Every structure is written in C-alpha cells, then in structure tokens.
C-alpha cells in the first residue's frame, strides 16, 4: 500500500505542474490524494472525508481535539498542499467536525426492550442468583 500511495503522490506532483491538468483531470481527486502527502499518514488517518470546493479543501475530522490540532497546523498544511499541487490549486483549508452519516433506506424502529418483572423483593435486584439466595437466607435468619 505504501508503494501505491508513493507512486500516486509522484503522479500527483507531475500532474499538478502540468499546464493543461485542469482540463484533463479531476482536481478534487488530486487534492484528496495530495492531502495524505501534505498532512502525513499519522494525521491523515484521523480525518474522515476530504473534498475540494472552489479551491477550498474541506477536511472533516473525527473530533474537536483533532480539529483544534489541525487548526494550529493549518499554515504548515496549506504550504505543503501548495508544494504538492501548485500555488493555484488550493487557496485555503477548512476544518469541520464530521457528522455521523445516516444510512439510506427506510428507518426501522428499535425493538422494544423486554420488560422486567416488577420488583417484589429487594433481593430481586441482586443479579447473581447465589448471592440473592444468600441474602434472603441471611435476612430470614435475622428476622426469626
């Protein structure tokens, strides 16, 4: 996998510097590939989605802590992206929290939780049957 991503990064650098690249290739796809090279593998695994919208790279991050860390690194990341893709490809990086995605299709209701019988005795609240029996026996002896 590392060999494949390295080859992709090299191809991305060559295509980014090619004058006719915007006419022939998808810059959004190229930006997604360049993100891993610009951010580094250890940082990129904490991002959920990367897309290019009007020269703004939108990066969705798993949690607020990683978003703050990447905000601090934004000038460095932007410089790396410009080095990978050329000066005109990416103007800014926007960091967003990733929202959990709903799956398409019909919504199924969650099955109702089984009802527990009404508590008749406080010993019924003890989950372990042996301890419950010991508790009942001890209570019976103490009240006798």
Structure characterization notes:
The termini are far apart. This protein has a domain at 2-97: GMP Synthetase, Chain A, domain 3, CATH 3.30.300. The model has no long low-confidence stretch (mean pLDDT 75). The protein has helices at residues 2-17, 21-24, 27-39, 41-44, 64-85, 129-143; strands at 47-53, 56-61, 92-97. 51% of the residues lie in helices and 13% in strands. Helix 1 (2-17) crosses helix 3 (27-39) and helix 3 (27-39) crosses helix 5. With 144 residues, it is α+β, with helices and mostly antiparallel strands. The chain has a 3-stranded mixed β-sheet with strand order 1-2-3. The chain has 6 helices and 3 strands, in the order H-H-H-H-E-E-H-E-H.
Helix tally? 6
Low-confidence stretches: none
Distance between the termini: 74 Å
Using the alpha-carbon principal axes, give the shape.
elongated
What order do the strands of the largest sheet run in, or round the barrel if closed? 1-2-3
Got a strand count?
3
User: What integer value in Å does the Rg equal?
Assistant: 28 Å
Mean pLDDT: 75
Helical/strand content category: alpha+beta
Helix percent band: 40-55%
Secondary-structure element sequence? HHHHEEHEH
CATH class of the domain at 2-97: Alpha Beta
Largest sheet: 3 strands, mixed
Query: Beta-strand percentage?
Result: 5-15%
